[in-house]
Structure formats: structure tokens, C-alpha cells
Amino acid sequence: MDLQNSEGDLLPSKPPEPASPPYRELEENIRVLKRIIVATLVALMFLGFGINSYMWRQSTMASRQLVEAKKLVDEYQHVKEPMIKNFISQLQAYAQAHPDFQPILSKYIEPPAVKSVVAPTNSLAPRPVK
Amino acid sequence: MKNHVLAAVLVAILFVLGLWATVQSARYFSTLGQLARLQNPVNQVTYRLNLAQSLVNEAMEYSKRNPAIDPILISFHFKSPPASNAAMATSKPASK
Predict the structure, then answer these.
(1) pTM, to two decimals
(2) Is ipTM strictly over 0.95?
(3) Which chain A positions have a beta carbon within 8 Å of B63's beta carbon?
């Protein structure tokens, strides 16, 4: 029995002719698909660059705002609040000697029991204006 | 073959871009969270500074009626020293 001949019928040693029309059409389709995939990847790359630059900008702006906010709170707590407290204590001493100033001061100074949110002080809080 | 290499490079770039976007968005949302937590203290500080400013303004108005409060305002640099002192200070070197 000639096996080589019998297998040769099932598995032809020669590939199909490249020039045959169905094969050429398939090859053309694959080429078009590859181009589409590459074009899509390029488009996605541009989209990725756009999204990343936008995110970077937003993130930088938010970081800058955060730094400014922290600076504002720190400056208030360490510099301005002690100064305001000192100023108020001097005004309170003045108001004891000059009672005509007391109504002005009492519009701004709250009772000592109320606590501040930023720092546990009793510096400034207005009384409701009627 | 050339197309395969190009596609692989593009996919690699996309992968890096995706990672970068993930890191950026994590950083952005973390910053936003910190900003939101800081918003209340910032509002309080702004409110208190405005109050202090209006107290200073009222004290300045009051000082027009009663100059006895001037030393306090001058010591906090809310008001400049009286012109007579400044004039004396400038006239002394001129008279020499």
C-alpha cells in the first residue's frame, strides 16, 4: 500500500494557488482589517494623549488650589489668629474704660463658651444683626 | 510583519497611556478629597477674616469720634501715626 499517495490525497503538499480569486479576496480583507486596526490604535493613542493631558492639567490645578487653601489656613492659625486675639483683648480692655465702644465690640465678640471650628478659640463671631 | 510591529508598539503606547491616566486620576481624586475636607476650615477662615476686617473698619470709624483708641490701631498698623510726629521726625534732619 502506498501511504504517501493515499495521504497525499487528503493533505495536498501544495498550498492553494495565491492567485486564486477567493484567496486573493481574503488576503485583501485581512490587509484592510490590519489597516483599520492600526488606524484605530493611532486614534486611541491620540485620545489617550488628550485625556492624559486634560487629567494632568486638572490635577495640577487642584494641587495648586490645595496648597493655597492649606497656606491660608496655616497662616490664619499661626499668624493672623493670635494677632486678632491680641487685638480683641486690647479692644476689650479699651471698652472697659470707654463704655461707648462696648456696643461696637459686642456685635463681634461671642460668649466665650462657643468653640471655633478652625481652632478651639473664642475669637470672633457676630451676633445676629437686628 | 511590519504591521505586527507597528500594532505592538501602538498597543504598548496605549498601555502606558492607560497606566498614566490611572495614576493621574487617582492623584486628582485624592487631591479633590483633600480639598473637600479643607473647604469648611477655609470658609471659616474667610468668614472670620471678613469679620475681623469689619471690626477694624468700625474701630477706625469710632476713632474719628474718639481718638483715644488710636494707640491700639496704630500699634496694629491699621492707622498711621499722627502727622505731627511724622512731620517732626522729617523736619529735624532738615533743620540741621
Answers:
(1) 0.66
(2) no
(3) none
